[in-house]
Specification:
GO molecular function: acyltransferase activity, transferring groups other than amino-acyl groups; hydrolase activity
InterPro entries: AB_hydrolase_fold, Esterase-like, Mycobacterial_A85_antigen
Distance between the termini: 37 Å
Strand content: 5-15%
Order of helices and strands: HHHEHEEEHHEHEHEHHEHEH
Low-confidence stretches: 1-21, 93-97, 392-404, 408-418
CATH topology of the largest domain: Rossmann fold
Strand order of the largest sheet: 1-2-3-5-4-6-7-8-9
Protein name: S-formylglutathione hydrolase FrmB
Shape: globular
Keywords: Hydrolase, Membrane, Transmembrane, Transmembrane helix
Number of strands: 9
Length: 418
């Protein structure tokens, strides 16, 4: 698929130039930087014995230049494969999706939300949703992490004061963080557009941090680790409880969705299956179907077969007690993710429905994510109910599903806040 083009929404920038127009994720950039690196290394070798005056300074300067050129070439190659910074603007923090949608930092547990409402209302008047940032503490898990929350246009409108909105919990991959969902992937802009064109009902999008700090070497896969952090509890209980207590949202399971990419995709499926009382919709974008155990995750489940089975998507699908709509995607170049897609599709039985979707081209990188997101947002729009006039779905006959039992485990150690 062709990657989504990046557009400067503020115009052409200073003197007709904007950093978002300079692509970094191209073979030409890698080739040029590799050529510069080769030349720099050759010059270093040729000039090493040629310095007559101040040889230490000359050698140091040429060595630094050569090293910088090699590092830049290697970084460009990694960026081409991973799609981390598609443009110069994204590297500098000004693109592809500038942060004007983030209107305020509303403080610990959103205590400053009321003060931000006029800013949210001003953007809403122009037909735009707003994103607020907060530090969210989990009373059950002991975890404190960053989160972003998108509120749709109209949320602050007095005429909508009785409306309760559907919710999407959007989960980044590893080692991602909440701000990347907007700054790299442009999810709030995509949701804005889908709502404006009636392809998606107005919805609240919650973007919790699934990784915490340290950002690298800290992949916990959204599970309650045997002797570690209770990420499942934080995401499915603490975050959800805060949303229900603070925002006007629907509480029926059919109005709650999980969506994520890579490890976030596994998290979305696994959490939805583990908590049938909470979620009715899930999207796994290039995710997998079981908790990995590698040098980055470590042994999260302590070698316990019961915990491994309780966090295995295929196992959970066999006895899921409630309707659940799942979208599972992969690129046709993603061998492992396609295999997981096929296993999940084969294992699904009623009342669960799984829709597999394989995208042409596109490996396991952020360019592929961006290219696929419009399709995923539209799919979510078809599976989410509209805002409800009252928060009384059970009175309307919605099914209430009890939470399933989970294996006993050691009390987790709370992660320190950032």
């Amino acid at each position: 698929m062709t990657p989504i083009p990046f557009v400067d929404p503020n115009g052409d920038g200073l003197l007709g130039f904007h950093a978002s127009t300079v692509r970094l994720d191209s073979g030409a950039v890698v080739a040029v930087l590799a050529g510069v690196a080769v030349v720099a290394v050759l010059v270093l070798g040729w000039s090493w014995g040629s310095w007559r005056r101040r040889p230490a300074i000359g050698r140091s300067v040429t060595a630094l230049v050569a090293t910088a050129a090699v590092v830049a070439a290697c970084g460009a190659g990694a960026n081409l494969l991973g799609g981390f910074y598609p443009t110069l603007g994204s590297l500098l923090g000004s693109s592809p999706n500038p942060g004007e949608g983030t209107v305020a930092d509303i403080g610990p547990d959103g205590t400053g939300l009321a003060a931000a409402l006029p800013l949210i209302a001003a953007r809403s008047a122009d037909g735009h949703g707003s994103t607020v940032h907060l530090l969210l503490h989990g009373g059950r898990s002991g975890i404190t992490r960053d989160a972003d929350v998108y509120l749709p246009a109209g949320y602050t409108d007095p005429d909508n004061a009785d409306l309760h909105y559907p919710v999407v919990e959007w989960l980044s991959g590893f080692p991602g963080e909440p701000r990347e969902v907007a700054s790299l992937f442009g999810v709030p802009d995509l949701v804005d557009a889908a709502i404006a064109t009636h392809r998606m009902p107005p919805a609240v999008v919650v973007i919790p941090d699934i990784n915490g700090e340290p950002r690298f070497g800290h992949d916990e896969e959204c599970v309650d680790a045997e002797h570690g952090v209770a990420d499942d509890t934080y995401l499915s209980t603490d975050v959800a409880d805060w949303v229900r207590a603070t925002l006007r949202v629907r509480t029926d399971r059919d109005a709650w969705a999980l969506s994520g990419w890579s490890s976030g995709g596994y998290c979305a499926m696994n959490l939805a299956l583990r908590h049938p009382d909470l979620y009715g919709v899930a999207v796994s974008q290039s995710g997998y179907d079981r908790t990995p155990s590698d040098v980055v995750t470590g042994n999260l489940l302590g070698g316990r077969a019961d915990l491994a089975a309780a966090n295995d998507v295929v196992v959970a699908l066999r006895g899921h007690p409630a309707p659940l709509a799942i979208l599972v995607t992969a690129g046709d170049d993603e061998t492992d993710e396609r295999a997981a897609l096929e296993r999940v599709t084969a294992a699904a039985t009623a009342p669960v429905t799984v829709e597999p979707m394989v995208f042409p081209g596109g490996g396991h990188n952020q360019n592929a994510v961006r290219a696929q997101l419009p399709v995923i947002v539209d799919w979510l729009g078809r599976h989410l109910p509209p805002p409800h006039g009252t928060d009384a779905p059970t009175a309307a006959g919605a099914e209430v599903v009890p939470a399933p039992p989970v294996p006993a485990r050691a009390l987790p150690t709370a992660a320190p806040g950032p």
